[in-house]
Design a protein that fits this description.
about 450 residues; alpha+beta; Tetrahydropterin Synthase, Chain A; 4 domains; five-stranded antiparallel beta sheet; 11 helices; 10 strands; about 15% strand; elongated
């Protein structure tokens, strides 16, 4: 909207400039023509008279955007506006932030800041120093001057801006708020003493002063958000006396506390002594009762323990006899097991001997049969004797084939020697014996 207003204003100014430039240009031409004519120069065409209709029309046209621009009013954010008429004065109603239209050349808009404001009166701490600002000095009931540091946070009521503009002095925060705040505190503090204002009823005083300030400023269109009492400056002499008084009261309170503590310690000691005595009595009674209970328990236990012990003795005897019988039975079983083992071992050895004898007989029979078969084979094939002798003598002897008559052959002597060998005769005799039956 501000851009539109600026654009309309520029357009109107340009039209006014054009309307003014046209007659000025015609007037300049006429002046130059008059000068040349006065100088005796050749006659020239006289310039046209000044045309007023075109410039007047431009002026009228330029007034339109200027009037439109003048009728547009933009209220910034956080502000409020009031329309002031040249004819009717302040008009009711508040213009809130945004664009508004007013009657140009007749009405104007006065803006007010609707955001929170702070008014501070009295002393302000700056580091270690204090500096007065709008000094607020009040009197207590005793007539002593007290310096107060008061801060009021307030804002204008948007619904009553027309009343503020029409009836309140401007600016309001400088002309109205300070006297109302000072009047409220000076009206209230004479009802209280310095000590009440400083300590015991400080919050009560602040609340009452805030109520007075809110009531007075609210009627004038000012909304008070908060009233703060940040500091109280006492008179120097009173402060010193109050400090000494507070110190004495503190000492008195400390002595009272110490006295109470000592009395409590005495009571605690008495109670501890009584508790220890009662505890000892109770402990003695408890020990006696416990001994009586233990004696009764032992007597009762003996009544039940004797039969149990007799049963345990009998049970031990029975267990000993059972262990004795078990040992005897185990010994007999071990002896019987050893006898059985020896018999089994004897039978095993007999069986092994019979098996060995049977094997020898079977081997002998097998050898006899083999030699019988070999003898028969040799009788049928006498030439095999040479091969067998060669194999038994050495694997390095070469086999020689000789005539069947056997002349000049060394094997004849070998066989003759073997026939005369008693071992060979025994083997031949064993071959002639009949083979034994199996199982004998």
């Amino acid at each position: 909207m501000l851009a539109l207003k600026l654009l309309l204003t520029v357009a109107g100014v340009l039209l006014l400039a054009a309307a003014l430039g046209i007659p000025l240009y015609t007037l300049a031409l006429r002046i130059r023509h008059a000068r040349r004519k006065a100088a005796g120069e050749a006659a020239m065409v006289a310039p046209e008279p000044i045309a007023w209709r075109g410039p007047v029309a431009l002026v009228l046209v330029a007034c339109l955007p200027l009037l439109i621009a003048a009728s547009i009013v933009v209220v910034p954010s956080g502000m409020g506006g009031v329309r002031v008429s040249q004819i009717r004065g302040t008009l009711p109603g508040t213009l809130y932030p945004g664009m508004h239209f007013i009657t140009p050349l007749v009405e104007s808009v006065q803006t007010f800041d609707l955001r929170d404001h702070l008014f501070t009166a009295g002393i302000i701490e700056e580091g270690a120093k204090t500096a007065p600002r709008n000094g607020l000095s009040v009197q207590s009931r005793e007539g002593l001057n007290i310096g107060l540091a008061v801060t009021v946070r307030y804002r204008l009521d948007p619904s009553k801006l027309d009343s503020v503009q029409a009836h309140m002095p401007q600016p309001v925060d400088k002309e109205l708020v300070p006297p109302v705040v000072a009047s409220a505190w000076r009206e209230l503090t004479p009802e209280y003493t310095v000590r009440e204002i400083f300590s015991s009823k400080r919050e009560e005083v602040r609340e009452k002063a805030a109520a007075i300030i809110i009531r007075k400023l609210g009627a004038d269109g000012i909304v008070v958000e908060e009233v703060m009492l940040s500091d109280i400056q006492l008179p120097e002499e009173y402060a010193k006396g109050l400090e000494g008084l507070l110190l004495k009261e503190q000492q008195d309170d400390q002595m009272g506390v110490e006295t109470d503590m000592q009395q409590k310690q005495v009571k605690i000691a008495e109670l501890q002594a009584e508790a220890e005595a009662a505890q000892k009595v109770k402990q003695a009674e408890g020990d006696a009762q416990s001994k009586v209970v233990e004696a009764k328990g032992e007597a009762d236990a003996m009544q039940y323990t004797l039969p149990l012990k007799e049963k345990q003795i009998e049970q031990s005897k029975l267990e000993a006899e059972a262990r004795k019988e078990a040992t005897i039975q185990n010994a007999e079983a071990d002896a019987q097991a050893k006898v059985i083992d020896s018999k089994a071992e004897l039978q095993r050895r007999n069986l092994l001997a019979d098996a060995e004898a049977s094997r020898v007989r079977l081997m002998a029979a097998a050898n006899a049969e083999r030699m019988t078969s070999e003898a028969e084979l040799l009788n049928k094939s006498p030439l095999l004797i040479n091969k067998i002798v060669a194999e038994r003598l050495s694997d390095k002897i070469q086999v020689l084939m000789v005539p069947s008559d056997g002349k000049f052959f060394f094997a004849n002597d070998v066989f003759k020697g073997m026939a005369n060998n008693p071992v060979v005769k025994q083997e031949m005799d064993s071959q002639d014996d009949p083979a034994p039956k199996p199982g004998h």
